[in-house]
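call fold(seq) -> tokens
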Amino acid sequence: MLGTTRTAELTITVGADQDDAFSSELLHRLARLARERGIERFVAELIPRISG
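ret:
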């Protein structure tokens, strides 16, 4: 359940020129940092920024 002190939710906008490996590495690092800080549930959404 979101809203507790053991949950985290975030949304990240990723540039269209960023590859999938970058996004995957970013999420893995954020998840590791969250676990180290006692976060039990981590919800993340990557939103591609469309150039235009």
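Strands lie at 7-15, 41-49.
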